[in-house]
Amino acid sequence: MNDEMKPLVRDDSNGRTRRRVNGGTETLQSSAGAYKPVNSQNDVSKMKHQKFHVNAFNNCVTCLRYCGCSNYEMISQEGPDGDYYRDDFNDQPHSCNIGSSEENGIWMNQSDTAGTIMALMVWFLIGYSAVTITFLAETGGIHSSLSMLYVTFCALALASHAKTQFTDPGSVSASAQPVESIRLMNPDAPLSMCSQCQTFKPKFSHHCRICNRCISRMDHHCPWMNNCVGAGNFKHFILFLVYTWICSAFSLGLLGWNYFFCVSEDCIFSVVLVQLARFVTLLSSGAFLFTSSMIMNVTYGVMTGIGTIDRLKKKANNTILNSDEEPIPLRDIFGIAGYHTWVVPIDPVFEDYDRVMGFSTAQRLLREQMKEKTISEHYASSNV
Ligand SMILES: [Zn+2]
Ligand SMILES: [Zn+2]
């Protein structure tokens, strides 16, 4: 049997699954050498045995990946011929440590104590309003279905907040390189470097002194999120604003109706509940005004393609009217995975990740080359 036609098995001694196995006849050999040819026909029974272990291994890896603590990468069954390369960690082992530097596997800004307290306050205040509305429903002053709907919006707002805080907002890698398609659009545009990070600085990115990283399409550093808002978590930030706006308008409507129109005995609350409800009214009024202004701010940024920092800079330089930036396409914020995913705080799937981020990396470019090679060979073999 020709070496090229030999089936492939995983070399468990190497411990890492990296490249796709396409139709059992081709492997893209990883630097770790994860796959190797089978040496003889006698290995068929051994292969079956190993296949069971490989399947078990892949299932375990999948479980670990969804738990977010895997040191391995996963081969899924998507793509041409049922195999598709999926890599969330740029061919680097994922680690469970927390921080905002490149080696940290879980993104979280730890350098800003005030931001950490403010982010916790958001959770406390939204939780407080949900508990108060639930108590008011217990007395019969508010219909229980309305309070359940309110708590659902609070849960969505908190989930969006958590995703905004713990998602990498688009930190520029140390090995960042310009994206060829963007360069070709404007070949004469100068390339810039960040003097702090000593890396390539994509257009629209800014260096955040709190996160100590350059952030792609950085809008601003939000202390209420304890994180930057950039290309990577813009969707989650918008969802948080919208759900918090809905929560505050909802509670104002509920409490306002109760105060002005409800005349039954159910609407007479205890002294403690009255105090709790008064604070919720105050809180919701402030949240409504703040989120309304932030939604207008974000909408302006999306429609003009100019983020908050860029807008302030252009206003200071008096060049805002001369800017020719394009609006940000909604698919570059919410992804292309279907409209139903737009309203849920899950990570967006971008059509062209490098274009959205404004930079590529050596690992990603290599992966693209390998993908193109495999796809072209797949179609060449299927045409024979
Ligand atoms: Zn920087
Ligand atoms: Zn930041």
Largest sheet: 2 strands, antiparallel
Shape descriptor reads elongated
Portion in strands: 5-15%
Q: Over all CA atoms, what is the radius of gyration?
A: 26 Å
What structural class is derived from the secondary structure elements?
mainly alpha
| Total beta strand runs | 16
Count up the domains.
Answer: 2
Indicate the percent of residues in helices: 40-55%
Number of H/I helices: 10
Poorly predicted residue ranges = 1-40, 67-76, 78-83
- Give the bound compounds: zinc ion
Order of helices and strands, N to C? EEEEHEEEEHHEHEEEEEEHHHHHEH
Q: Give the overall average pLDDT.
A: 79
Distance between the termini: 20 Å
User: What spatial order of strands do you see in the largest sheet?
Assistant: 1-4
- Oligomeric grouping of the chains: single chain
Question: Characteristics of this structure?
Answer:
10 helices; disordered N terminus; two-stranded antiparallel ribbon; mainly alpha; 384 residues; single chain; 47% helix; elongated; 2 domains; 10% strand; 16 strands; binds zinc ion
